[in-house]
Amino acid sequence: MNTATLKVLEFDHVIAAVRSFTVTPLGASAVDKLSPLTDTQLVEAALAATNDGVRFLNVNGPFGLDGPSDLLNILSALAIDNRLLDVQQLQGLATFLGSLDKVRTSINNASGGPFPSLQSITTQIRSFEKEIRDIQETTTSSGEVDDNATPQLKAIREKLRKQQKRLRNTLESYLKGRDTGKYLQEQIVTERSGRFVLVVRAEHRSAIPGIVHGTSGSGASLFLEPINTVDINNEIVALEDDEQNEIHHILMGLANSLRRRSPDLRQSLKAATEIDVIQSRANFSRLIDGQKPSVVSDTHLKLPNARHPLLFSSVRKRAGIQSTTRETSTPTPINIILSPPTTALIVTGPNTGGKTVALKTAGLLVAMAQTGILIPTG
């Protein structure tokens, strides 16, 4: 079926509606590429998979597949050697890989089975239990690397907190001091160029010995680092550098542990994509009360009680099509039958009598069936 024909049939709107059911960027990208198959065995396999998906969803509910919206960007970064993944990216990947374990378990233990098309896909899913556990134990829910990720990080942060407390106490003594507080423009500690400073009145520059790290816009205030906090600030800066280096080492190790399993990851991603495509076709098929058609190699065409899918208001909403007066919750069905030796059907009637809808219904339902989507017929 050529591209122009599919465009006339508004096949792209059906695909858009199917795409709305995807739960991962991988599945969404794959659905966008769906087109009618021409090999009978492939068509039958696709229909069987969708039918298994419908039966599974009817009894067991959603598959449980889950993935972050930026999954494709995360995978692209992971594909580059020595490319760092941040905490949010690692956690998103862990969530996605963990959901694959849930999908495999739910399909293999599902009620109403067997579901052979789905079960054959789950055999491709590999477990990343250790890698997921490492990410979960090393990072926090707030998106940080946990103190206990490594003994080195724990020691660095303990020293850092100790020095920060020492610095804070020293600076607060200036705020509270009778001899120094009167020289301050504001009773606060602020930061300039990574150094903690006091806000001193410009005319009292020499009252508190220290290093000036800038002035306010009006020039009335100076941002001054007291001389007796310079060494403490220096140590804090050094410890912060050590902390970042250790965090970089930890995050790189987590990313590389996944990179070392790239063949397993590729196989699992392929399975996840197939599952997402099947569940999206199945959910769309449920929306239109789709039936699994029989595929024949001759010129038989039998579509009893066929309904045009884009006349369903629920489908139009999913596809992002503007509402019209013609759409209904349940379109009026028509019967389209062609049996050999008959090879042509003449459709007659007045304008707005439904001739175009009948023609498009026949073409669109055939295209849908060849894409593995169940069709709204009797």
Structure description:
The chain is an alpha+beta fold. It is 53% helix and 10% strand. It has 14 helices and 6 strands. It has helices at 3-8, 11-19, 25-32, 40-60, 71-78, 87-108, 116-122, 129-138, 151-176, 178-181, 230-259, 262-287, 313-319, 355-370; strands at residues 184-192, 195-201, 210-215, 221-226, 301-306, 334-338. Strands 1-2-4-3 form a 4-stranded antiparallel β-sheet, covered by helices on one side. Strands 5-6 form a two-stranded antiparallel ribbon. Helix 9 runs antiparallel to helix 11 (230-259). The longest helix is centred in the middle third of the chain and has 30 residues, at 230-259. The two termini are 24 Å apart. The model has no long low-confidence stretch (mean pLDDT 91).
Gap from first CA to last CA = 24 Å
> Structural class, from helix and strand content?
alpha+beta
Model regions low in confidence, pLDDT < 50 over at least 5 residues: none
- The largest beta-sheet arranges its strands as 1-2-4-3
Q: What number is the mean pLDDT?
A: 91
Order of helices and strands: HHHHHHHHHHEEEEHHEHEH
Rg over C-alpha atoms, rounded to the nearest angstrom: 32 Å
SS field, number of helical segments: 14
Shape, principal axes of CA atoms:
elongated
Report strand %: 5-15%
Major sheet size, sense and barrel closure = 4 strands, antiparallel
The tally of strands reads 6
Share of helical residues? 40-55%
